[in-house]
Structure formats: C-alpha cells, structure tokens
Amino acid sequence: MCGIIGYIGPKNSVPFLIEGLKKLEYRGYDSAGLAVIEKGKVRRVRAVGKVAELERAAGQINPKGSCGLGHTRWATHGKPSEENSHPHTDCSGEIVVVHNGIIENFLKLKEHLQKLGHTFRSETDTETIAHLIEENLKHISAKTEEERFLSAVSRANAKLHGAFAYAVMWSKTPKQIIAVKHQSPLVVGLGKEANFLASDVPAFLKYTNRVLFLEDKQTVVLRSDGIELFDEKNHSIKPKITKISWDQKTAEKGGYAHFMLKEIYDQPQALEDTLRTVRNDFFRILKSKSEDLRKIKNIHLVACGTAYHAALIGKYYLENFAGVMVSVDLASEFKYRTVAPSKNTLCIAISQSGETADTLGALKKAKELGFKRWGICNVVGASLTRLCDHVFYTHCGPEISVASTKAFTSQLISLYALAILLGQACGHIHQSQFKKYYKELMTLPKALAETLKVENEIKSLSRKAYLANRFIFLGRNVNFPIALEGALKLKEISYASAEGFAAGEIKHGPISIIDKGTPVIVLMPADSLFDKMLSACQECRARGAFVVAITTPEGKEAAASVTDKQIIIPQMSAFLQPMLNIIPLQFFAYWVAKRLGRDIDQPRNLAKSVTVE
Ligand code: M6R
C-alpha cells in the first residue's frame, strides 16, 4: 500500500503535493518523493523516511511547477532507499511515474525492456511502467503529443498484470496528467480551478469535495480545466461525480471512526494481497529451496503478542500438513532459555513490524545456535529481514492501530501456505491434497468479507457485556490461540481483565473465577470438537455465566440449547476457521472499548512496535 497524489492547476503544485502526502502517510511512510514539470523539464526530489524529510529536501532545491505528482511509499519491491523511492522515470528522465500496488509480471517486462536497451535504476516494479511507455512512444505517431502519450499509456496497460493504480506525466505534455486504476484505489478531486488525483480523498478534501471514484481499468486525463475519462477500450465515458460529506478527520480513516475498525474491514483486501504474495513469492522461494526443505527436522516458531498467537496456530498447521516437530516460544523467553542444539533446525520469526526487540534477540540466538532462519514480516527492509535467510512478506499494508488485526490474519495465511508448501515439498501431503487445501485457501477473503457482517450483532452484544469486570474466552485446538488473541485484543484496548483458556482446561482451575453474569465467549464451530465445546458451555452456564457461542450454521441449534446468545459465521475447514473466528472477537474488543470511551488506536502504556527489551 502506498499513497499517490497529483495536482494540476494555476499554482505551484509542490505545497499541495506535500500537504496531500501528509494526509496519505497512513498508507506508507518508508520514503517519499515528488516531481513537477518546470519549464519543460522534470524536476524530482526524493527522500528516505517520512514526508517531513521530503519537505525538507524539497525546501532546499525549491522545485516549482503547476503540474506535479507525489508519492509516499510502503515498500513491496526493493528496500526503502532513495533509488527505490517514487517517482520513477524512463531512460530519458522525461516520463515520470508514481504507482501503488504490484505489477506481477514486472520481471518479464523488465527483462524484455533491458534487451531493447532500457537502463533501470531501481529494484522496483514501478520503473517498468515508465520504460514501457517510453518504448511505446517510439512506435506511435499521432496528431498531437497529448494523443501520442495517451495511446502509449493505453498500450502499456494492456501489458501490465496485477493490482495497481498509477499516474504519469511527460515533460512534453506539461498540461496533462494521465492516471490508471486497476484493483488499487484512485480518486479524482474536481476543484474550481485545479484538479487533483489521489489514492484517497483526504489528500485533497480541503480543496474540493467533488470526487470521481475511478473504476477498474479506467484511465483518466487530468487538465487544469477539466478531466476526460476512458474505459478499457479507450472509449470516452461520462464521469459520475460524487459529493463527499465526511469531515477531514473521518476521511483520513476512510470514513471509519478509528484505524482499528478500518483495519478490521481492510481484511478481505489485505488477505487478497497476502495471497497474491503467496502465489508469486512463496512458491518461487520454496521451489528454489526444495532440497533444503526436505532435510528440515525441527522448527522453532518465535514471536511476541499477537504474532505469538499466530505462531501457536502455525504449530498446528506445520505439524498437521508438513509432519515436522514444532516448538513455539515467546521470543522474550526463547532468548533466555536453554535451547537444545539440533541439526537441520529452522527458526521462523513472525513479526508485523520486523522491529520488535525481543523477536530480533530470539533470531540472533537462533543464529548463534546454527539454525536456519526465516521471517514472516509485513515491513519490507525491517531489521528482522536482515537477520533471516528468507523472508515471506505478508504485504497486508501498513497497520496503524496499536491493536493488531489484519496483520494477524495475514500471518495465519502465510503460515498455512508455508505449511502446505512444506508438506508438499517433504512428501507429507500428496499433490491432490495440496491442490485441495490451496484452492480452499484462495476462497478465504470472500468468506471473511461475509463474516464482517456480524458487526451490528456484536455491537449490541457489547451493550449487554461492556461493564463486566472480567471476560473469559474459550477454544480448543486451533481455536485455543484464537481465545488467547480475543482476550489480548480486549484487554489491550478496553483495559478490562480478560483471559483465554483451552476449553478442556477450565475444570482444572479457571472455572473458579466464573460467577453470575461473567461473559464467556466460546469458539465452537461445528467441527469434530463441537460436542466437547457444548459440555464446556454447560459447565460455565451452571455457574451463572453469560455464555456466547461463536458458531457456524450447523452448530446453531445445539448451541442455542446451552448458550445465551449465538453469533453465526460462515463455515470453512477446521484449519481455516480460525481466520474467521477472530473477526467477531476483534469487533467485540472494539465495541467494548468504544463504549468505555477508551483511546482505541493508541491505548495507554502501549506502542505499535516495542523496540526495547
Ligand atoms: O510488530 P510485531 O508483530 O513484532 O509486534 C508484536 C507485538 O508487540 C504485537 O503483536 C502486540 O501484541 C499488539 N499490540 C497486539 O495487538
């Protein structure tokens, strides 16, 4: 996820670009850049770090131009560096591109363009677009340079695969910006004397609330006095203008009251993005390693907080699909315990930020012990990636809220994918089984989107429960870590006391803390352990608990006989069900905290990444 901004109008574009980029920083913040057309030439400034760094750099060289593009980056291809920052240019430096998303076939295109003599200066997929347009221009003649440029862009679009949105300028056509949308967001703002382009409305909302949300495969040409919209076949179409009624603050969060809620709702798209990476990168990396993979005898999973809960579920996946012995450690514990030396051992560290000090410490220890090291991480170029032999990126976009939501489900997908790929490589599962598991995995975003519909029910449930001083979450097998995660989510943002237990364990002690009215939330999809969960519900209810079942359609009736409330979500196979079961718990934490008036995105005493021990 990155942020794009464009301005074309009578004034110097630079202040508008910087202002817009600051509003888009939530989409990515590892580097930023801008370019303007000044006296027929492209002037470009780029800087590593936040937009403030770019502002400082731009202040020094003072570019001026009434047509400009800006970008704030969240690295996907190539580490965060000035060379990899957008905007990118073609060989001549006359064509300049900013881009959000992934060009899946960029390696093939790059190779082809290099053979034709194009020189690339970055590791990004984006630069391919600039060279492709440059190449097309060589073979197109038209009445005007504007027409020529537009058809060069349209020919490029026909060759690009993936999910992307990009904007491009050419120094020879300084009175227009062309932008294209395909599966990544792009919106046009129509001002009185200037027009804007951005990944999201807040970037220009101060200047106009008249917007055009581009549809997939549409191309728009922006001029200072108007816009022209084209469909995939280059037919001119009538733009459908919408008036936005959000205020600036709401708009930054995509209309949601908090980033946490936005990120819960981001999950179907985030999972699509992770799955795209699974298809492209995981297969490639693991294919090149299949010899080594077959030798792996033990796996240590290390992580903290929410990522640790993902690791706990990862153990079930890896032992089931790959048949390898797996141990799971809190990274802060792994670092200081005696870990038996062993051969052919792999340590997998899981971290959203890739900067968690405890997780980095665990990886250093794994290195000392001679273990191979892989990472599952969301931030390209983070410190963790330098300590690993291989990194599998979740690519779920920046997570702003302290409470981790979409990173968790993306980590689960990554672990599931690794487990079935490893299982196949080691011969633990047959090709036909692999295909079946893989196919079902690809259906997850849709089921998750369906699950999000429970929000209203959870909202009213939270009205009944939010004043309780203790909450209990129960699950078994892969849903036991979901119970732990539900409790963590609730305590970190509501400050209430919440605990997760393995349902079979409550009779060994925890049941004594249940009394009249204690909310007990039970994860009980209709699976092989359903009957055991029914017994756990009865045990809690007998002590006066207010029991809520999170179950699937088949379990509804039986659950209704032993619980006070049933929340019904879609059914998937047992190992994919946790990715859906967590959704009601994320909503529950959110709504309890909201009713208690907590600072949801920045709860007290916590930080997004814990970079100290
Ligand atoms: O960036 P990481 O995934 O390494 O962070 C690990 C934990 O600090 C993190 O998951 C924390 O527990 C979250 N705030 C939970 O929502």
Essential attributes:
Rossmann fold, Glutamine Phosphoribosylpyrophosphate, subunit 1, domain 1, 25 strands, binds 5-amino-5-deoxy-1-O-phosphono-D-mannitol, 613 residues, 8-stranded antiparallel β-sheet, alpha/beta, 7-stranded antiparallel β-sheet, 39% helix
Q: What would your notes on this structure say?
A:
This protein is of the alpha/beta class. The protein has three domains: 3-252, Glutamine Phosphoribosylpyrophosphate, subunit 1, domain 1 (4-Layer Sandwich); 256-442, Rossmann fold, CATH 3.40.50; 454-613, 3-Layer(aba) Sandwich (Rossmann fold), CATH 3.40.50. The chain is globular. The mean pLDDT is 93.
Strand order of the largest sheet: 3-2-4-1-10-9-11-15
Q: What is the residue-averaged pLDDT?
A: 93
Which oligomeric state applies? single chain
Query: What amount of the residues lies in strands?
Result: 15-25%
CATH architecture level-2 label of the largest domain: 4-Layer Sandwich
Q: What Rg is obtained from the alpha carbons, in whole angstroms?
A: 26 Å
Q: Please identify the top-level CATH class of the largest domain.
A: Alpha Beta
Number of helical segments with 4 or more residues: 21
CATH topology category name of the largest domain: Glutamine Phosphoribosylpyrophosphate, subunit 1, domain 1
Main structural class: alpha/beta
Bound molecules: 5-amino-5-deoxy-1-O-phosphono-D-mannitol
Poorly predicted residue ranges: none
CATH homologous superfamily classification of the largest domain: Aminohydrolase, N-terminal nucleophile (Ntn) domain
Percent range of helical residues: 25-40%
The total tally of domains equals: 3
Distance between the termini: 30 Å
Largest sheet: 8 strands, antiparallel
Shape verdict? globular
